[in-house]
Amino acid sequence: MKKKIALLLAAALTAGSLSACGGGNESAPSATAAKGGDNGSAAQGGDGGQPAASGTVYPAGTLTVYAMGNPQYRQQYFETWLENHRDIAPDVKIEFVQTEGTADIREKITMTALSGATEDLPDAAMLDPVTIMDLANAGLLKDETEYLTPLLDKMVDGAAKDATIDGKIYALPDSVRPQVLFYNKEIFDQYGIDPEMMKTMDGYIEAGRQLKEKSGGEVFLSYIDPTSKTWRYWGRRGLMPSADAKIWDDSGEVIIGSDEGTKKALGALDTMNSEGLLMKTTIMEPALYDAINNQKVATFCIGAFWDEFMRQNCDAVKGQWRVMSAPEFEGVQKAGAPVSQYMGIIEKGDNPYSELFRMMWYDFTFDIDAKEEWVNSMEAQNAPYSNPVSIEMLEDPFWKEPSEFYGGMSFREMEGKCLQNGADNLIVTPQDAEADEIISAELEKYVAGNQSMEEAIANMDKNLKAKIGKAQVN
Amino acid sequence: MLQTLKKYRAPYLFILPFFILFFIFQLIPTIWTIYISLTDWKGIGSPKFCGLSNYRKMMVDNMFWESLGNTVVYWISGLILIICCALLIACLLNSRFLSNDSARAFFKTATFLPNICAAIAMGLIFRMLFDENVGLVNEVIAMTGGAKVPWLTSTTFSKIPVIILNVWRYTPWFTMILLSGLLNISKDYYEAATVDGANSAQQFWFITLPSLKNILFFCSVTLTVDMWKLFNESYILPGPGTSNSSLFQYMYESGFNVFNMGYASAIGVVLILILMVISVIQFAVRRRQGEL
Lengths: 474, 292
Hints:
The structure holds two protein chains of two kinds. By secondary structure, chain A is an alpha/beta fold. Chain A has helices spanning 2-21, 71-84, 102-115, 129-137, 145-148, 185-190, 201-214, 229-242, 260-274, 286-293, 306-313, 354-366, 368-380, 391-395, 411-418, 432-447, 453-467, and strands at residues 61-67, 92-98, 124-127, 164-165, 168-169, 172-177, 179-184, 222-224, 278-280, 299-303, 321-325, 339-345. In chain A, β4 (164-165) and β5 form a beta hairpin. In chain A, α8 (229-242) crosses α16. Chain A is globular, with a radius of gyration of 25 Å. Chain B has one domain (50-288): MetI-like fold (Orthogonal Bundle), CATH 1.10.3720.10. Helices cover 73% and strands 1% of the residues of chain B. In chain B, α4 (62-94) packs across α13 and α5 (101-116) packs across α8 (159-183). Chain B is flat. The interface between A and B is large, with 48 and 39 residues.
């Protein structure tokens, strides 16, 4: 009897293990049950852009968007939009899922797609150019060419450029933000230095020298981060494009070691760092905010996104800061590359909310009144927002209103103006994530004092050649 | 074989759940990892067979070798410091100085606390403690007249906070294992040694340590595996470049930051091989000592 009970118990344990390993499928909806009709074209209005929603009622459920930064603020806009459109989406909710960044978004989407659980994929995601390239190649993004092409004339130059692969557009433009120069006017006034001299890179460095000398070393020109953010903000998005530097040549061969632009870009960083003009501290951390609030850091040559961090963390210097175009290198005359962000609609078989999301995106991009109301709310909450990509919206006086934080200067207007002389971004390749890791590691060792900038550039070249060899350049 | 299976079907049925789980969650993924390591795969689309190119790439990858070196440093330092600290604390908890039961219970609980704290939360606290500009450690150094140390921004010092966090987190667990071993040593040995005139150091060397041999061996094996799988501590306390990265972390970053799944799998295979070799050596040494 005991033996039989033991056998029964063992059999039950085995069965339990097997059933635990199996996936339940009773509640899994069919991923291919209701295909078609979601490419936007059927519902497009006469202008070829805004989808007409007549007669369409979207099914109850949650529209999920993977995003980064502070997506809860973006969610406020879309929730209001849904409240105002209950006739077409009576029971639709929207959820912006906070992620760490585009790598995290890509990881989540990739793993979900690999597992075959397409119903768990988000409906849309905030993406950068490299992720768009990879997801589009894997067939995980909807082709937006037909929908977006008629709208391109209404948007700022190059709005869809980084989402275009082999002539097809795979994501909806969300923002195009320039590289700008933030400077504390009060510090410059105090030491009698003319900020206009910072129009050129040589002038920018000279301003740093004068600040150091006149303040007795108390005031730094800017910061240098010991982590990968130095490459991200000073390098890839800042000095490299404005110096017309290149990692790869047109055929994808590594040329960073011999490229004159790279020497010019990273050489400028080396000059600033070796002359002690940069405060060594991690960006977006309390130590740097303390230094800003104590007037120890005078400028930031960085993307316009830095505005939200300043507003949130540097109240003590409110009204002292101003914005101008990022410094230009002699012979190139370009002011850093704009950073584009996109919203991609995920190709997951039956995505019932594709068209609905396009409608939301359209209003977010082109509905002047709704956008202004949302931006005012963001200002009141010290929350992030970016300039619109719509040309018509940018011409509205609202986008030229003065900003209290910038002493009456219009940050929004300056952001628009700074786009006008933007450099081209570095070529986007599928190998960029790996290349960034290699380049950043060498730059971090330079910041740590382990090697000179010349050695860092030589090591970047050597390691890129050894690990990647040749990049795929479209 | 079938007869044996029939004869011992009850025991085999009892161990079957483990083997099913082992096959599904360990053996098959391991075989899959070996296959993926021979391909060029970015996590989406179809893997493209590329032979041994991922392994060739590893040979010339400075970041791989640096991560491997870091892992060896964490392993050796962990093995020495954690076992020494754990043994010391276990002996203190077991000593006659702690005759009060409630005091003993309090110190046991207090000792174990670091082990139940979330590694990431502790990592963040350590990051604040070792911050170059506003960290408590540098404040104390500055108060005593010393210069601020670039703990996490210099390749010279960056591994020290990771090692300290590592020791702080793992010591309690091994303390409890060693304490249980100490409690199993008969008091008669110590009484006899005292009668024979042995002092405390001699008792520790000739009674305590030999009695804990098997437990120390178990600790060294599990600690070796733990140290080679180190991730949280080095991930949350990064140094310049890969100066703090463990091999496990580098494997993760190659897979999920760079999305080079083939290369990450190759690192995984190398990690498996290294751990197998170390384990075989450890068991061989013990066998030679006649302990196994």
